[in-house]
Amino acid sequence: MQIISQILFLLALVAGIWFFTRNVKRLIRNIKLGKVIDRTDRSGERWAKMSRIALGQSKMVKRPIAGILHVIVYVGFIIINIEVLEIIIDGLLGTHRILSFMGGFYNFLIGSFEILALLVLIGVIIFWTRRNISNIYRFLSRELKGWPKNDANYILYFEMVLMLLFLVMNATDYQLQLNGAAHYSQEAGIVGAFPVSQFLLPIFDGMSNASLIIIERAAWWLHILGILIFLNYLYYSKHLHILLAFPNVYYSKLQPKGEMDNLEAVTNEVKLMMDPDADPFAGPAEEESDAEPEKFGASDVMDLNRVQLLNAYTCTECGRCTSECPANLTGKKLSPRKIMMDTRDRVEEIGEIINKNGKFEDDGKQLLDDYILREELWACTTCNACVEACPIGIDPLSIILDMRRYLVMEQSAAPNELGIAMTNIENNGAPWPYNQQDRLNWANEN
Amino acid sequence: MAEALKVPTMAEYMAEGKKPEVLFWVGCAGSFDDRAKKITKAFVKLLHNAGVDFAVLGTEESCTGDPAKRAGNEFLFQMQAATNIEVLNGYEIKKIVTACPHCFNTIKNEYPALGGNYEIVHHTQFLKSLLEEGRLKVEGGKFKGKRITFHDPCYLGRGNGEYEAPRDLLRKLEVELIEMKKCKSEGLCCGAGGGQMFKEPEPGNKDVNIERTEQALEVQPEVIAAGCPFCNTMMTDGVKSKNQEDDIAVMDVAELIASAEDL
Description:
Number of strands of chain B: 8
Pfam family, one (chain A): Fer4_9
Shape of chain A: elongated
CATH topology of the largest domain in chain B: Rossmann fold
Helix content of chain A: 55-70%
Helix content of chain B: 40-55%
Mean pLDDT of chain A: 93
Strand order of the largest sheet of chain B: 2-1-3-4
CATH architecture of the largest domain in chain B: 3-Layer(aba) Sandwich
Structural class of chain B: alpha/beta
Domain 4Fe-4S ferredoxin-type (chain A): 305-337, 369-400
Distance between the termini of chain B: 10 Å
Largest interface: A-B, 72 and 74 residues
Largest sheet of chain A: none
Order of helices and strands of chain B: HEHHEHHEHEHEHEHEHEH
GO cellular component, one term (chain A): plasma membrane
Mean pLDDT of chain B: 95
Distance between the termini of chain A: 98 Å
Oligomer: heterodimer
Number of domains of chain A: 2
Low-confidence stretches of chain B: none
Strand content of chain B: 5-15%
Protein name (chain A): 4Fe-4S ferredoxin-type domain-containing protein
Number of domains of chain B: 2
GO molecular function (chain A): 4 iron, 4 sulfur cluster binding; metal ion binding; oxidoreductase activity
Order of helices and strands of chain A: HHHHHHHHHHHHHHHHH
């Protein structure tokens, strides 16, 4: 019987890890659909930024309530996972609480896990009420209707159930140890400390050891299977940030927020235009004649860079960006969070096509128009509030700018008044129709 | 103001074989917009007052390309940048000051990779350094004790991390500096950036400048201080739409200092 359970455990573990690995491979493949971008410079600063923002959660606590609750759940998540190590060893070897040889330290660990589990449970319940009962602006947006809202709730239910299972497992285990049940009780006396789950004991009052073992085993199995399922749910949920926040912050932009990249392809063209020695009638160079001319800007996810696609997978749809966006606050359609969600949905759609056909085949859709509307793109003031607000370094503005570039440079589809301003700049060096020769008139006006 | 301002150009300096201490980059708004021209003049008066040896490009100046770039026209931006860089490098410009955060950001961050390397400061940073060097004297004057709130320009604050220079200047005026609920890194945009200045807003339920003006009115200021000609226009329009223009002035930090000193 014991050996069967060990084999089943091994199978579950292997299946869980295999499936997770497959999804990670798909994730990396999809991110690589984007263009290469070099963000390997200034590695010291990048590590420091990652420690501060991803590991240290420094931007999370800018909003104290959500921030502190998040820190609790985050710390709980990381520390309680030490317990998973023991569960895996026990599961594989058929042992029980194998790490209990550590004695007092073990008791301290188990005791801390219990307290953290309770705090996480409380945190997650508050999160649930914030999402479902309190009228919080950023949780009411139209892009959260349907799946995104359910997804967020499923994650919260998952965490609640996992914490409850952990406490039930400990409570029944404690009771079994008190009862002196075989396999549970140890010569050293009670192992583990149960500052929280001891209060659950009355529930199990009067139960036989056999019933207690069934409950304890059920909780143990469901807890570890739950963790494996949760691990594999990540890829399908908005919850990948627990893994991707780290690389995402590492690869985030280090330059001042106001700086926007200069397109190199354009620089080359401008240099050629300004070069008095350039032959105006020259055809493209021999080796370039067959190459497709570079596309300016982005109309689909393949035109974005890999960091932008990583951003999309990392976004956990918290909406802090949207709640700071001046366009969104004044009722415009633009929501930076939706830009990230759309980008991810479109990458996933393309990923599915590749899963099916082995390669991407044009499906007649693209990120522009089919997901992100022009009206959204043109509402942006490029104020960087969304970039500043993101607790894990996502840059929705860079995507907006790349899509504007496509609209203007590939399609000449700027809104009419903007087109006029640009024509003015081109003709007379100012966005208004004033003559450049009048530029110093102010000095002589009273 | 009877006499015209003395505003030397680089061409004049060149003709005399001289080089100014700093180039004043006026910008399109500062050159052509009636409201912004007042800011330009106030700043020039402060430069004279502090004995700064400066010059402008005058008719050789052209749009930095900021609105074009942020509207997606990278091509036009780089054309503008190349032209301007050629002029600036031709005059061997080393140091630039500008009263427009958009010009400031573009020249500071986006020109270097295109061959334009200059030390550029925003006029509030420059005024602060003049103050620290003792060249400019700023004392309370007529704004002493007045309730003043500062609206952070996105491209000075969030864009380039400068929140304190304008505030330090206001403190020197001994005003009662009050902060809006959204300020500094969380400051709300005035609604002009990213090319919005030159187009109608997308459909919504409010204009951005009205939202920002409402935030400013919440703290009941006597003056809304700005550091950007576009913010200035947006906030002025906002205050007007609330029929508060008789009670609340929207002024650039340079104007506040110049008018406190009765220049």
